[in-house]
Amino acid sequence: MPQHTVKAYGDELNQLTAEVARMGGLAEAQVADAVDSVARRDVALARAVVDRDARLDAMHRDIERKAIRLIALRQPVASDLRRTLASMKLAMDLERTGDLAKNIAKRGLILAEGEPMQPLTRSIERMGKLVSMRLRDVLDAYAAAEIDRAIAVWNTDDEVDEHYNALFRELLTYMMGDPRTITAGTHLLFMAKNLERIGDHATNIAETIYYEITGQEFMGERPRWNPDAAEAAPEPLSPV
Fold first, then answer.
1. Mind listing the pLDDT tens digit for each residue in 51-110?
2. Crossing angle, helix 182-214 and helix 118-144, to 10 degrees?
3. Does the N-terminal or the C-terminal CB of the chain have fewer CB atoms within 10 Å?
4. Would you tell me the crossing angle of helices 147-155 and 182-214 to the nearest 10 degrees?
5. What is the pTM of this model?
């Protein structure tokens, strides 16, 4: 290809990567703000999270459209093709992450109308910070193309599951002890499940990064929390 064509092709790939990174930043902010709105009973912030979700949807469509156009016109192969396909997969995970953050914010709006449940909302806040940290780490790994950092996120998938199971039991205890907390507790249960699913999307992103860089699928079963071995530290898995 002529030099100017090669440069234009490279610019398109770099732009696609940059747009995924920007979408990741917005998705990360959505999760953090959704959790913060619940912890602070901040109605205005929760509504802002709901409204901003449309921007994530638009970014997802735009990235997908540009990736398909690049494949059709440039016919990328090898690492360039993986990079293009990865942008589409990551945009999908980030769009779904945004949907889950929006769901948390919408339930936060309902909870803000009732009596505060500080001990339980603090538990949601702790789990939310853990999930936000995992999402930030895996997005940083994508931006820097750091495969070891992506693997580290993959290997800690069970930490989010452990928090979810502990919070699930805590919420059930509250609801059984005081039936008046059942409605609010149910909303908090759904919030916790949404956070657990966001953690799964972070793990999906880590697997996509591994594939983009190596050209190989990340093999092995994801680490899962084992309640019978809660006292033992989980052993990290390695890609094979």
1. 999 999 999 999 999 999 999 988 888 899 999 999 999 999 999 999 999 999 999 999
2. 10
3. C
4. 150
5. 0.86
Contact between 19 and 62 (Cβ < 8 Å): yes
62's tokens: 């735009």
In angstroms, rounded to a whole number, what is the distance separating the alpha carbons of residues 156 and 123? 19
Report the alpha-carbon distance of residue 207 to residue 84 in Å, rounded: 15
The answer to whether the CB of 26 falls within 8 A of the CB of 59 is yes
Contact predicate 134/160, CB 8 Å: yes
State the residue for tokens 């509250």.
174
Measured from the Cβ of residue 116, the count of other Cβ atoms closer than 10 Å reads: 11
Instruction: Tell me which residue has tokens 């803000």.
Output: 112
DSSP classification of residue 234: P
| Distance in angstroms (rounded) separating the CA atoms of residues 220 and 237 | 8
Amino acid identity, position 86: A
Question: Tens digits of per-residue pLDDT, 166-183?
Answer: 999 999 998 899 888 899
Q: Which amino acid is at 64?
A: E
The tokens for 133 are 């940290």
d(C-alpha 173, C-alpha 182), whole Å: 10
